[in-house]
Amino acid sequence: MLRKSLTGLLLTASLLLGASIANADECSHRGVLDDKFCDENKDLVADSPKDASQWRDPSTLVFTYTPVEDPAVYKDAFQEFQQHLSAATGKKVIYYTVHSNAAEVEAIRSGRLHIAGFSTGPTGYAVNLGGYVPIAVKGTADSFQGYNLITIVRKDSPIQTMADLKGKLVAHTSASSNSGNLAPRALFPALGITPDTDYTVKYSGKHDQSIMGVLSGDYDAAPVASDVFDRMVSAERIKLDDFRIIYTSPRFPTSAFGYAHDLHPELVEKIKQAFASFRFSAQMTETFNGADRFYPVTYQEDWKVIRDIAHATGTAYSKAGLKALAEKDAAKAAKKRAEQVAAEAAKTSS
């Protein structure tokens, strides 16, 4: 009996070793990508599966855009592109609304999402953990549409410089946000101001909530994305004269657009062509601050500054990092629901 057990254990160990060797042979390089992906051409994104049986060619393509501000606004804004994408691929295209960055990453990772726009910061999670391949950014014929991290205060605030933020309450948006959290933590120390040390950080959840919080006096200041701020001004949700900008960073790329790595290569080519040939309507151009097309980018080159910021802030595009992001998203959602219930109760009692 003992001999049989030992033989069985040795056989199992041999099979496991063989499987490990086989797996190693199947992928010679994956870099920092999750174990389920391979990156043998070392372009930092997941390769298409070698086994053609793993290529997906769904009859319906699922598309979404990052849950910044009001998701319903962007569902309508991308309707024309969805129609163009459907014509280019010969497939039905539906919009899948997501309510958090973590949920969007999980959707691309699980295969429920095929084509998507991810916010600048969470793009790294989508690439490393979800097999997401960024290919475009909103832009013009000359360049991609960029944005800056800006630090805003109320026009009547005594705060004049970044140094004046010491001892203040400053709104950051969310843990995964580039301009709303990661970039400030990487760039502000060189300006003599360190978040959490020199000022108190309070997460607002979204850029528009940080902006409105500064306006209402809930926060002394806030680092936010300049494109969100500009859109709110254009939509007359806020007045430019009510704010003062005390800092402007170098330019960052805006949300990335791309596809799931395991889509059939022929379908991928049609998707790429759809992005390359689409031109925004006047209404879309107005919604997206002057962009009139999708400008081609690569994660390896155009997201380098974002990866550098993430590295400087200790952000890991890993499962543990995504779990922490999901927990923070859930906590923010619960807080928002509680505030809504309290507001409704206050209305009822009055």
From TrEMBL:
The keyword Signal applies. Keywords: Signal. Residues 1-24 form the signal peptide. InterPro entries: PhnD. One of its GO terms (cellular component) is ATP-binding cassette (ABC) transporter complex. Belongs to the phosphate/phosphite/phosphonate binding protein family. This is Phosphonate ABC transporter substrate-binding protein.
